[in-house]
Each structure stands twice: as C-alpha cells, then as structure tokens.
C-alpha cells in the first residue's frame, strides 16, 4: 500500500469520525433516525455517536424562541379596522414530536399565531382591545398552546405589541377624551359650588346670631385690599339707611 492509499484511508476515517462523533450543547437535543425509523427518545446533550450513513441526526434547540407576528389587519367586533402585531414566546418540550409531527414547527407556529390573532381580536370590541389587553393575551396564549401541544411545542407567552388606529378614530377618541375631561371639570365645579353654598349658609346663621361678626369680616376685607395696594375701595352701605327715603317716595 502506497502513500496515496494510506492518505485515502486516513481521509475516509476522518470523514466517518466527523459524521459519527457529534457534540451537542446543553440546550440541544438530537432526534436520530436509524434506517428511517425514529429513536425512542432524544439524545444529548454532550457526546453523541451516530452510525452514519445508516443513522441520521436532526438537532433541535430547547431554548425559548421569540418571534414577532407580522402586523395583521383586524376588524373588531364593533366594526373598527385596526392593525395589530404581537410577540410569541415558545420552546420545544418534545423534540421527537416537533420533528415528526410537523414539517417545520417554527413556520407552522408562526402561521397559527397569525390566524389566531385575527380570529380572537376580531371577536373583541375596540375598548376591550385597548383596556383589557392582559385578558386577550392570556386567551391567545391558551388557544395557540392548545393547538401546538401535539407538535411538542409549549407556548409560554403571547403579548399584543402594538395597535394602530385609523386617523379618524384617533381624532374621535381625542374628542371623546376632551368631552370627558370637560364633564369631570363641570361636575367638580358644581360640587364646589354646592359645598360653598352650604358653608355660606352656615356663615349666614352665625352672622345672624352675632351681627358684629359682619363688621369684623368687613374690616378683614379692607385689610386684604390694602395689602394688594389697590387705589379703589368700595364701602358697603346697609340697605336699612335707605328705607326712610324709600318710604317717603312710596
């Protein structure tokens, strides 16, 4: 055997060893097929021997995967057109099912998330979509997880990321919010007037029992006016002073 033959043998041995010896990371599992039949359980992590070419291996990551659902045009239950996107977090819990039950589990999970997003949000009103997002997220997660369970996929969380409203709806909501603020301001003002009138009524009762308090209040008002350096001062004149003249005219 010459040097060339030895080189060929070494080359074949290196190729076979590179095929037979595989190192899997802690987050990886190997689904192996021997003559086309899947193994009973996934192998790894660590050193995994594959008897190539009769045995074949497919690597599967068990880490949590996050992907963004493409923006979907949704018509809500109250006939408002919105554009919504979301983020889905999932991981593979059964590598064998993930490989043999569906052709491409990342693509299938993405498509299922898109259709479920349109279906669930289409049954909700706009107010529910904006104010009760946590409940909708939980519902989306439950539905997607139930459909991906036969694939060996666990959906951990679904979050509605952004809701884009039409310009007309944004202006209408702004006018509604402004009207609500004006309504609250008028109610607060009316409540203040009611409380003030009640206090004035109590003050009138006190002044009626002690007329001198009116003179004291008048002097206090003059003090406050003089502190502001005003040039004009109004002196109140009791109406009783004019009753004599009014009687003569009548």
Structure report:
There is one protein chain. This protein has 8 helices and 8 strands, in the order H-E-E-E-E-E-E-E-H-H-H-H-E-H-H-H. It is of the alpha+beta class. The protein has 3 domains: 8-61; 65-165, Band 7 domain (Tetrahydropterin Synthase, Chain A, 2-Layer Sandwich); 172-249, no CATH class.
List the helices and strands and how they pair.
Blueprint: H1 3-20, E1 21-24, E2 28-34, E3 37-38, E4 46-49, E5 55-61, E6 65-75, E7 81-92, H2 95-100, H3 105-121, H4 126-131, H5 133-148, E8 153-164, H6 167-209, H7 212-227, H8 243-249
Antiparallel strand pairs: 1-4, 2-3, 2-5, 6-7, 7-8
Helix pairs in contact: 3-5
Class of secondary structure makeup: alpha+beta
Q: Output the CATH class name of the largest domain.
A: Alpha Beta
* Regions with little confidence, pLDDT below 50 for 5+ residues: none
Report the strand count.
8
CATH topology of the largest domain: Tetrahydropterin Synthase, Chain A
Query: What is the N-to-C order of secondary-structure elements (H for helix, E for strand)?
Result: HEEEEEEEHHHHEHHH
How helix-rich are the residues, as a percent range?
Answer: 40-55%
Please, what is the average pLDDT?
83
| CATH architecture call of the largest domain | 2-Layer Sandwich
Profile the largest sheet.
Answer: 3 strands, antiparallel
What count of helical segments does DSSP give?
8
